[in-house]
Amino acid sequence: MTRRFKPLATDRHPNDVDPSTTRPVLRFDAAASAPDLDVAAARAGDVAAFERLYHRHAGKIYALCLRMTGDGEEAKELAQEAFVRAWRKLDAFDGRSAFGSWLHRLTVNVVLGRWRAAGRYRERVVAMDDAPGMREPEQRETPGAGVDLERAIARLPKGARTVFVLHDVEGYRHKDIAELTGLAVGTSKTQLHRARRLLREALGHG
Amino acid sequence: MDRGERPDSGSAAGSTPGGDSRRLDDLLDGALTPEEQASLEARIAQDEVLAAEWEDLRHLAEGTRALPREIPPPGDLWRDVAAELAPRNPVRSAPPPTGFARGGWLGQAVAAALFMALGGVLTWLFLGVSTARVGAPTKGAATYGAAGEVVPASAELAPQTLAPQTLAPKTLAELELDYLRARDALWLAAYGRRGELSPELLEAVQSNLLRVDDAIRDLRRALDSDPGNPQLESLLLANHRRGVDLLWRLNREI
């Protein structure tokens, strides 16, 4: 089970000062603490609690799947599989990391595992000689800012896209990417460099 | 970005156009030594092509950082997820533990329970809640039924005045859920009136709730190794009750 309250030091906000005493006022952060109560309840079999967890994390998980696959249908399937697997493996969540971080990594493994099982892993991630340039888009329009970049990411070759999304979008280190994907660290860096070059070209730079 | 990682090529900065481009990546990722960084930045300042490429790379990085962290999933995704959720058994079956493992978990569990008992005493001292006040009739607070279940906001007796819990007729899982729901409700009630609470009080309650969580975690692990152990189950419920007690008393202070 995880900590249910944010550390006190981070609960203080510069603006939270009682004017009568100038003493900082500790803030209860329901948004930060409630999810962990839901994790505990979900572990005990409470589907409603798990649904609340789903609604808190679904946007991030779906974004991860969509950007990794570049395909809306496949992203939906993978996000579904990730949440179902999270439900089954909740007992394995030991609370050493935030639930969101645990779920995120689990999702990456679901995506990569699906590709491995489908026999397309080398084509998608490992192979360095996949399509030399951008491919035609297969799917979606993403509204709002960054549409061009979203489209360009979706059109990246799969290996380059995977590394770019994990490194530049999701903040994984090359070492972590190597562990997750089985790539060498150097290969991960090469794919990232390639992705950035292709993206700059696609966006009219470089 | 992976600060501190070294570039894999090991090539000298600026030896080729391709090498320059790779070095710009390293610069962006903070993977250069201070000397390498200073050298490359000096060259960027003197080379318009390199400077333009660096500017493009920074522009891309800014655009990437600005991407939304969330993308709304299809509306029917939860329905599809829920359709595949099999019932969970919160107290998992496990093979009989070895003597060593069992002793280790039991030892930890008992230690956690003792620690909690001490923590509870300290909390009451800190909060300055008198014994008489604790035992007085209350309203609007959670309490416990004959089977140990939580009865929020309706009972007239404080927890300490009730009979010891038993596991019948409810299962351990059901009782845990009762506690979690009560704790959730009490927490939200306190959150709604947080402005009326002193920082010291909040800090004490938070600290003790964290200890409750630790004890519950240890007891759950112990139960994984020794499922059905009535002593462990009783300790587990006792710690759940302590968590509810803390929030119940916090609400009384408001």
In short:
The complex is a heterodimer of chains A (206) and B (254). With 206 residues, chain A is mainly alpha-helical.
Q: Can you tell me about this structure?
A:
The complex is a heterodimer of chains A (206) and B (254). Chain A has 206 residues and is mainly α. Chain A contains 10 helices and 2 strands; from the N terminus they run αββααααααααα. In chain A, strands 1-2 form a two-stranded antiparallel sheet. In chain A, β1 and β2 form a beta hairpin. Chain A is elongated, with a radius of gyration of 20 Å. In chain A, 44% of the residues are buried. Chain B is mainly alpha-helical and 254 residues long. In chain B, a hairpin with a 5-residue loop joins β1 and β2. Chain B has 9 helices and 2 strands. In chain B, α5 packs parallel to α9 and α7 packs parallel to α9. The chains are: A mainly alpha (206), B mainly alpha (254). Chains A and B meet through β2, α2, α3, α4 and α8 of A and α1, α3, α4, α7 and α8 of B.
